[in-house]
Amino acid sequence: MEKRECLECSSPVTGRKDKKFCCDYCRNAYHNRLNESSNAYVRRVNNILRKNRRILHAFNPEGKAKVRTLQLAEEGFNFHFFTNTYTTKGGNKYYFCYDQGYIKLDDDWYTIVKKQDYVKV
Q: Is residue 15 exposed (0-12), middle (13-18) or buried (19+ Cβ within 10 Å)?
C-alpha cells in the first residue's frame, strides 16, 4: 500500500484511494491559495462597483437627480467601472452600477436614475 501525503500540509492521508487532503481545512486552504490572485482581482472590481453604487445612491435618494461631474469625482466615483449599459430608442446610453444609472448631459452635468422594471439589461 502506497503512502499518500496531504497536498497542503504533507501529513499522511488515510481513507479513500483518491483522497488528496487530510482534512477540510487543508482542502480549503489549498484551493484558496490557488485562486488567490483571481479572487483578489474580482474583489477589487466589486469594491469599486459597490462604491460607485453607494455614491450614486447618496446623490439619488428619490430615484432621479442631477449632479455635476466634479461632485461625483470628489466622492471618489470611478467612471471606468459599471455593471451594464442601456441604450434608449433615441440612442442615449445610460451606464449602470447595479440599480443606479447615470447619463452624461451637456455642460458637465449627469442625470442619475434608478433602474425601472421596464429597463431590460
A: exposed
Q: State the Cα–Cα distance between residues 101 and 112, nearest whole angstrom.
A: 6
- CA distance linking residue 121 with residue 55, whole number of Å: 21
User: Counting every residue, how long is the chain?
Assistant: 121
Domain residue spans in the chain? 4-34, 54-114
Burial 84-103 (b: 16+ CB within 10 A, else e): eebeeeeeeebbbbeebbbe
pLDDT per residue as tens digits for the range 18-32: 999 999 999 999 998
Q: What is the pLDDT of residue 74?
A: 96
Q: What local confidence, expressed as pLDDT, does residue 115 receive?
A: 87
Cα–Cα distance measured from residue 13 to residue 84, given in angstroms and rounded to the nearest whole number = 47
> DSSP letter at 10?
-
State which residues of the chain have pLDDT below 70: 1, 117-121
pTM of this structure: 0.70
